[in-house]
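Task card 7
Instruction: Convert sequence to structure tokens.
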Amino acid sequence: MKYDLIVMKFGGTSVENQERLLSVSKIIKKEITCGKKVIAVVSAQGYTTDNLLALSQKITNTPNLRELDVLLSTGEQISIALLAMTLESIGVKAVSLTGWQAGIKTCSNHSNARILDIFTDRIENKLKNHDAIIIAGFQGINENDDITTMGRGGSDTTAVAIAAAMNAKECLIYTDVDGVYTADPRIVKNAKKIKEVSYDYMIKMADMGAQVLNKRSVRLAKKYGVEISVLSSILKNQGTKVREVDLNAKPVTSLTVEKDLFLLKFKSKDFDFIFEKIQKNKINILDIFFKESFYSILLNQTYLEQIQELFVDFKDYETKLNLSKISIICSNQDIIFDIFSKVKKASKNIPIKYANVCEYI
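Output:
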């Protein structure tokens, strides 16, 4: 390539309306004015994916996953077309590509597909005559030419994978926060922004419920040496770099919170039966606890109705609703125990389970 290439990803809030689309277009145009070509990966606007899911649930709570992927993929297609139009309106030569048009090949695991390969010929050809290529995130095509989607946060993975395939050394991820914080700044007002964080630390944060970056995207970035910058398309503050960093030299403590969870509790003799059903239906398990001949599986409450339907003929279980999970990620054990003691003191009569709530890195 005879030009500098930059890969950018814009989340749903960044493109949710005409004003935001214009703002994103100006960010892209600024890079082009500096002599770069831009590949922008885009998510569905605002709550489009949730609204499409709600449409499917009006018909059935257990939709055919292939057809669900066909439905959900339309959200990103709306975004890429609108962004390409907006760019053209301000004088930028742009073209939009769906996942399959961009050569993104995935496995056949509908609703949670993984990228197997990216054939970049079409992207490279389009870059010859266009300054910006707008690609639908979250989607690809399998060996049967069926549309697939990659699950929540799949656009992050798309962007990093394209950056790797196109030999771009950096991927800019624009989201609704201006970087990675020690806690969710929308909940904890005095949370501090982390200027630089390692791939491994970011993976651990994603594992524990941080929603800034998709875990798969960070694993991919680490594998191919793609630096990630987490930025805001609205705020102008400097963001967070995700790359190889010596944790001992730059120790960080962060806290993540997952809300709206529930426990599914059952006897140990029923573990194989229940676990097989959960796995078969691709329900994401957050944690597993064992105590006094009983297992408890921690799940997101969005799965509650599905669990009830799966075990409608099996009554030997109980659920505990409206739970939250607090995870502390730190390289210093003393700090973790200090936080635990403060949480216990502040919580008073709120029961706290210590097992599996902290991670050492």
